[in-house]
Amino acid sequence: MTVRARGGEVAPDDIVTLRAVLLPPSSPAAPGAFDFARYAWFHRLGAVGYVVSAPELVEGGEPGAREALAMIEPLALARPIKMALRAADGRLMATSTRSNYTVDSWLRHDGLDSGLPWPKPSEVSNDGRMRCDSLGCIAVVNGVEEAFVQDERAFAEDCARAQIVIAVVPAFNPCPADVVVDRFDVWWRGAQAVWITSDGIRIAVCLRC
């Protein structure tokens, strides 16, 4: 969306409220012309438009504080979930570095052309904050332990030790972690981001990140 009205200073990762006019993507202007509506459909662009009010910063937004992401395309339960963790240098480590809508949208949001590779089993990330095995990965960020579960056999141990559990598989059994985002959460509610701040852990939902 295009923002013409001026408001207060905003930065990437800020949460704002605003009023906007949204319209469906346009159809071809003539037979054989470029079909933007079709293009938008396959790129999951639901509308185009412009903002008619100044953006207002939502209290409690933590610009630049996002640390972990889990995402799946809504209504596509059979597809693999993409996960990412912010590295110490600010770049994203993603479970897939191949070009796809999910990862590309995260990188565009951060103004980056490429991300860092996700550690393979038995590897440690370059910044040392994440280590992985065949069942998933464990990361420690700002003193908070995060578990990225890729096999349901990891739940018992990871739920007992980590404050945040992000899983590409369903968590059928109760998990005592402070924050749990599993396959059904991101399928049902959409993309989710977890902030780790000085005030604690906060989670936000974005259906069309």
Structure summarized in a few sentences:
With 209 residues, the protein is of the alpha/beta class.
Account of the protein in words:
The chain has 209 residues and is an alpha/beta fold. It has 2 domains: 2-57, no CATH class; 66-206, no CATH class. It is 15% helix and 32% strand. It contains 4 helices and 16 strands. It has helices at 36-42, 101-110, 155-161, 183-189; strands spanning 2-3, 16-17, 20-23, 48-51, 56-57, 66-71, 82-86, 92-94, 116-117, 130-133, 136-141, 144-149, 164-167, 179-181, 191-197, 200-206. The strands form 4 sheets. Strands 9-8-7-6-15-16 form a 6-stranded mixed β-sheet. The protein has a 5-stranded mixed β-sheet with strand order 10-11-12-13-14. The chain has a 3-stranded mixed β-sheet with strand order 1-4-3, with no helix packed on it. The longest helix has 10 residues, at 101-110. It is globular and about 60 Å long. It starts with a strand and ends with a strand.
What is the helix fraction of residues, given as a range?
Answer: 10-25%
Mean pLDDT equals 77
| Largest sheet geometry | 6 strands, mixed
Class by alpha and beta content = alpha/beta
Q: Secondary-structure element sequence?
A: EEEHEEEEEHEEEEHEEHEE
Sheet-strand content, in percent, reads: 25-35%
How much is the radius of gyration in Å?
19 Å
Q: How many individual β-strands?
A: 16
How many separate helices?
4
Shape: globular
Q: What distance separates the N and C termini?
A: 13 Å
Number of domains: 2
Question: Strand sequence of the main sheet, in spatial order?
Answer: 9-8-7-6-15-16
